[in-house]
Amino acid sequence: MDYMNATMTFTGKLLKWYDENKRDLPWRRTKDPYLIWLSEIILQQTRIEQGLPYYEKFATAFPDVRSLSSASETEILKYWQGLGYYSRARNLLEAAHQVMIRFNGKFPSTYAEIRNLRGVGDYTAAAISSIAFQLPYPVVDGNVLRFLSRYFGEEAPIGSAKAKKQIRERALNAMDVEDPGSFNQAMMEFGARYCIPVRPDCKNCVFLSGCFAYNHQVVDQIPVKDKQVLKRIRYFHYLVMRKSDGQRVLMKKRIENDIWKGLYDFPMIETNQPVIFKRLVNIPEWKALTASHSGAGVRKSGVFRHLLTHQVILAQFYEWTTDADLFTHETWISIYDMKNLPVPKLIDNYFHTLDWFV
């Protein structure tokens, strides 16, 4: 692309801006589809600043799909700990198994094959196929939707199928087919760093003259939002039972189809509203988990607040010692081994309030 002869076109301006302003990121220094895939999965719903150290850890520990496929789920979840959306980690491992079985360890090179990998959607398949294999598939993530919606004046709600279809067509028509990977990365970069959600610096924007939203003074109204999703509030009451020797704690692996599947936490009672302690010890779930422990000698934590995309977790921890050994779905874990288990961020935060946590 000759930038000097294309400065008045949308595509020329975008690629010129990207060439002059792109960040130096490790996955931009390679065409290895495995490493590009790894970065895209990690960066789903994650800021680059947060995801970068995770990418570096994974790329070092698992430099290729074969090494990743040989890891256990517990090992992968531990590396992923703190990044959230843990289904991504489980899908990552399953997709690595798919590559080993279906493609003999060689990462697939067509959009359709990549799209069929576990955990890979339209956006991720487009990113990998365009960057690694120069295939002309446009990426449409939240940053691109916002940027192009403002520029072209898209009035359909941003989460609607209509908006996504129209923005994808706009991107495809503007794409530089000689270098679709750079075009896609440029759109994502500009949306993430310049055409930001609130108070973008429009007066210094290279797209100022052609931007519908700016020229119609509706930047703060585009993209059109869907109806706000109300967050579900959940009340967790964790039972932290230690053996009387102080060296073991009862923990459980979450196997339900709920948040944090595959991670470890403590036996827990969930209620649909706040419950004071003297009532908590009298509900059947408490008695079933504690062999009717009366609550004597229990040390109660403050409330831990943990925010998820559509949920708010309000958790308290109740700690005491016991010699009971009647538990079937939990495991006594050495306090020295607790730090090696993959746990939710909420549990990790609680760990670091304990004077006996090693």
Notes on the structure:
By secondary structure, the chain is of the alpha+beta class. Helices cover 40% and strands 13% of the residues. The chain has 15 helices and 8 strands. The chain has helices spanning 10-21, 33-43, 48-61, 65-69, 73-80, 87-102, 111-115, 122-133, 142-152, 161-174, 180-193, 212-215, 277-280, 284-290, 345-351, and strands at residues 232-243, 248-253, 264-265, 268-271, 299-300, 304-307, 311-322, 331-334. Strands 1, 4, 5, 6 and 7 form a 5-stranded mixed β-sheet that branches. It has a 3-stranded antiparallel β-sheet with strand order 3-2-8, with no helix packed on it. A hairpin with a 3-residue loop joins strand 6 (304-307) and strand 7 (311-322). Helix 1 (10-21) packs across helix 11 and helix 2 (33-43) crosses helix 3. The longest helix has 16 residues, at 87-102. Mean pLDDT is 90; it is low at 1-7.
Give the secondary structure arrangement, pairings included.
Layout: H1 10-21, H2 33-43, H3 48-61, H4 65-69, H5 73-80, H6 87-102, H7 111-115, H8 122-133, H9 142-152, H10 161-174, H11 180-193, H12 212-215, E1 232-243, E2 248-253, E3 264-265, E4 268-271, H13 277-280, H14 284-290, E5 299-300, E6 304-307, E7 311-322, E8 331-334, H15 345-351
Parallel strand pairs: 1-7
Antiparallel strand pairs: 1-4, 2-3, 2-8, 5-7, 6-7
Helix pairs in contact: 1-11, 2-3, 2-8, 8-11, 9-10, 9-11
